[in-house]
Give the backbone structure.
Amino acid sequence: MKIIVLQFADDDDTEEARDLLDAIRRAEDAQAHYDLDPDDDAPTHVSSTGDDRIANNAVRHTYRVLSEAEKLQMQSIKDLGAAFIAKLHEIGGTNPAGDSFVSRNLSLANTHAEDAVMRAVRHITA
């Protein structure tokens, strides 16, 4: 159980306080509904090729275990996508650690590269 203490400056903030408490209650109800444990020691990141990749995906409800060949294919596709995006940053002279590009065309190329990787991975993992 967590105790949250809220302090507001005046009575005008009462409605804001109620809204905030309602939001907290809804979040707690949703958490209880999905039986999530906020204190769980589950990792925040899992390998995209690992069998634990289903642990943090809220969209797909069933998964199949990938073969070693499929895992290698998926990693290869992601590596190719990352190399292509790094090349876009090199062409534009932008920071590869960032997500902004010098031109709209390079930004679109990045978006399409990300989409291509996603669709290829979805094919492999389908």
Q: What stands out?
A: DSSP finds three helices and no strands in the chain. The chain has two domains: 1-41, 51-125. Residues 68-92 form the longest helix (25 residues).
